[in-house]
Amino acid sequence: MAPSALSVEGIEVKYGTVTALWDVSIKVEPGEAVAIIGANGAGKSTLLHSISGLLKPSRGRILMGGQEITGKRPEEIVKSGISQVLEGRRVFGNLTVEENLLVGAHLQTEKGSISDNLESVYRLFPRLRERRAQMGGTMSGGEQQMLAIGQALMSRPTVLMLDEPSLGLSPILVAETFRKIDEIRATGTTILVVEQNSRMALRHTDRAYVMEMGRITLSGPSAQLMKDENVKRVYLGQSLLASS
User: Fold this and answer.
1) If you average pLDDT over every residue of the chain, what do you get?
2) Which residues contact 106 (CB under 8 A, 6 or more apart)?
3) Which residue, 15, 27, 122, 145, is most buried by CB atoms nearer than 10 A?
4) Residue 89, class by beta-carbon neighbours within 10 Å (0-12 exposed, 13-18 middle, 19+ buried)?
5) In this predicted structure, what is the pLDDT of residue 240?
6) Are 107 and 79 in contact (CB under 8 A)?
7) CA-CA distance, 146 to 190, in Å (whole number)?
8) Is residue 14 within 8 Å of residue 205, measured between CB atoms?
9) Cβ 81 vs Cβ 68: under 8 Å
10) For 160-219, what is each residue's pLDDT tens digit?
11) From the CB of residue 68, how many other CB atoms can be counted at a distance below 10 Å?
């Protein structure tokens, strides 16, 4: 049986004496799109930061394609095939669009591969090609989100993790962002997305996990969770209000 693209096994993460994640386990299979939903402060971003090496679990392990990556440095994890789009569209405002994208390729050494990756990003986001000489800090919120995703794609990840990609965007731009995520997934990239807009996340993923207070409390096919009465009451109603 082929190993999962990403496997988190019983991790515990602490901030000092405070435990942020308790015995958290998830699996993401190759080519899947999986969502982590939950309220603000549930531990969703902490989970992604643990996978990407920004935080080190005190217990448990994380595997990429069957190989353990627990405790590795962030740059080693990027090299292994995991790339994260951080919450808040963190682009370099004093660099041009193209310079921002090239930052995402800083671990690559083959010029031909970098050029191919850049062209691939420009095909996915034509507006970035149009604005390639524009300073990142002068772009709109939606354009900066495109740029942040494009920057993460420059390393040609096997697994792309997105932290709150709809944050601060209008409903039209939220829909456009998730359409682009669908396109990325269609190329074979495995997707793990953390999102408070639960309705949108469940519409665009195969499976989902619900996090509450640092624990996984529910999981299953996204279509099934959309029909779950507790999920509908606590999360989908909340998403409808947020997007209205």
Assistant:
1) 91
2) none
3) 145
4) buried
5) 37
6) yes
7) 18
8) no
9) no
10) 999 999 988 899 999 999 999 999 999 999 999 999 899 999 999 999 999 999 999 999
11) 12
148 vs 64: CA distance, rounded Å: 23
Q: How many percent of the chain have pLDDT more than 90?
A: 81
Rounded mean pLDDT, 13-22: 94
Give Cα separations from 234 to 7, 218, 224, 227 (angstroms): 27, 13, 15, 12
Which comes out higher in pLDDT, residue 235 or 63? 63
pLDDT of residue 109: 60
pTM confidence score: 0.91
Under 8 Å between Cβ of 164 and 69: no
Q: What is the largest CA-CA distance in the chain?
A: 52
Residue-level pLDDT at 239: 41
Q: What is the 3-state secondary structure (H, E, C) of the chain?
A: CCCCCEEEEEEEEEECCEEEEEEEEEEECCCCEEEEECCCCCCHHHHHHHHCCCCCCCEEEEEECCEECCCCCHHHHHHHCEEEECCCCCCCCCCEHHHHHHHCCCCCCCHHHHHHHHHHHHHHCHHHHHCCCCEHHHCCHHHHHHHHHHHHHCCCCCEEEEECCCCCCCHHHHHHHHHHHHHHHHCCCEEEEEECCHHHHHHCCCEEEEEECCEEEEEEEHHHHCCCHHHHHHHHHHHHHHHC
CA distances from 84 to 54, 151, 163, 218 (A): 11, 10, 8, 24
